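User: Could you check the structure of this?
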Amino acid sequence: MNRILLDAKTLKNAMAGQDVVYANLAGDLPRMARTIVAAMQDSGIRRLIFIISMGIYDEVPGQKYRSVLDPYRDSAAVVEASDLEPFRGGVVSRKSVASLIVKLATTAGLEARHSLGVSKREPRNAAANQQEMKTL
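Assistant: Sure, the predicted structure tokens are below.
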């Protein structure tokens, strides 16, 4: 799969006819990000859901992961410098993240050009927790 993500022509062909690109990757992230952004721009695709890692913006209190997260931060910088519509997020259940990703992928303009963080709120009670999950 990494070879495809590093070959702009193959990636552009794979994107033909798509409305949104979802990327949740490992490997040479900055290079993959540059190739994805270029292929999307060449293809006219604007919507990108690019999943990286929490901590790249020092948003985890008391934790400093800078050197370990450099490739993630560098790939995020590539996406953020583009004119694409990225999405950014945090620690929650897979089901909640999947639900949000589907909404972002299927709702034109939803959170366009916004960098989002997804986190779990501490509900006041069990009923509030169930209501919160329904809204995701």
